[in-house]
Amino acid sequence: MAFLAETDALIIDLRRNGGGSPEMVAYLCSYLFDEPVHLNDLYFRPANETRQFWTSPVPGKSYVGREVYVLTSPRTGSAAEEFAYNLKNLKRATIVGEVTWGGANPGDMVRLGDHFRAFVPTGRAINPVSKTNWEGWACNPTSQCQPRTRCGWSRSS
């Protein structure tokens, strides 16, 4: 993150990001805050346990006091959606683009037969601000626009 330390604003493009891990979301979000912030919880039904995800101290400078923009599309999913959803609910970023795909809940593939499998949710994400998540309805952008068009917003100097 050192190469971003002196920039005026940050644009994070998640338009073709299908996800990752909640640990990486917490790590990346940690650079955008200078104090501990509760980002998300994951509740797992099989174990009846909830795991919390918080920002934590990171090496180098935090990226605070500057604007952050996150670009989204229908191909933004899972942990990438969580990243955008967290920052939107914490009012830390402006989300620009299209509605994301709407996949929030963790689960597993279950064999239904010789040639069929299904994804079965085994838990749910719970945002500490909204008390819900983006499953099935997605993360809606702050400023909605289609690809390859001007979005009608600009960063003021």
Short description:
It is built from two helices and nine strands; from the N terminus they run E-H-E-E-E-H-E-E-E-E-E. With 157 residues, the chain is an alpha/beta fold.
Strand order of the largest sheet: 1-4-5-9
Helix content: 10-25%
**Structural class of the secondary elements?**
alpha/beta
Sheet with the most strands, sense and barrel status:
4 strands, parallel
Distance between the termini: 23 Å
Annotation keywords:
157 residues, alpha/beta, four-stranded parallel sheet, three-stranded antiparallel sheet, 2 helices, 9 strands
Description:
- The chain has 157 residues and is α/β, with parallel strands linked by helices.
- Helix content is 13%, strand content 30%.
- It contains two helices and nine strands; from the N terminus they run βαβββαβββββ.
- The protein has helices at residues 22-30, 79-89; strands spanning 9-13, 38-44, 49-54, 67-72, 94-97, 107-113, 116-121, 123-126, 143-144.
- The strands form three sheets. A four-stranded parallel β-sheet has the order 1-4-5-9, with helices on one face. A three-stranded antiparallel β-sheet has the order 3-2-8.
- Strand 6 (107-113) and strand 7 (116-121) form a beta hairpin.
- Helix 1 packs parallel to helix 2 (79-89).
- The longest helix has 11 residues, at 79-89.
- The protein is globular and about 55 Å long.
- The two termini are 23 Å apart.
- The model has no long low-confidence stretch (mean pLDDT 90).
Sequence-ordered SSE layout with sheet pairings:
Layout lengths: L8 E5 L8 H9 L7 E7 L4 E6 L12 E6 L6 H11 L4 E4 L9 E7 L2 E6 L1 E4 L16 E2 L13
Parallel strand pairs: 1-4, 4-5, 5-9
Antiparallel strand pairs: 2-3, 2-8, 6-7
Helix pairs in contact: 1-2
